[in-house]
Design a protein that fits this description.
two-stranded antiparallel ribbon; 3 helices; elongated
Amino acid sequence: MGFLNSMNISGSALTAQRLRMDVIAENIANANTTRTATGQPYRRRLVLFGERNAKLPFSDYLSTAQSAVGKGVRVTQIIEDESPMKIMYDPSHPDCDENGYVRMPNVDTVKEMIDMMSATRSYEANVTAINAFKNMAMKSFDIGK
């Protein structure tokens, strides 16, 4: 494992979690968007992570004598949540149907805030890991004095 691999791994996690927070913020911002460019209500988006530069599946690492040190994390894709839209009765809304019902986005702001807290904690944990690595590197320089 190279000298800076720990920093690269945590750095990739910082980038991935920042994108996750951006997507969550977009979901919250569009929680009441009933009409997008396609004419449909906004659909909640989710971020999927995967191992960066994965060469073997994790199960293969367990069955071989190779080191199981990964290369970090990456965003594999951003998908739309296929859960059903919320239905709200509001006959005065411009996007209501003939019965007065409006299809609202499938965004639950409480769930989004919980996801945001999780992403923030992951981000903070990786910042702490980077700081620990920097402290260890500085201590190694002190040994050489």
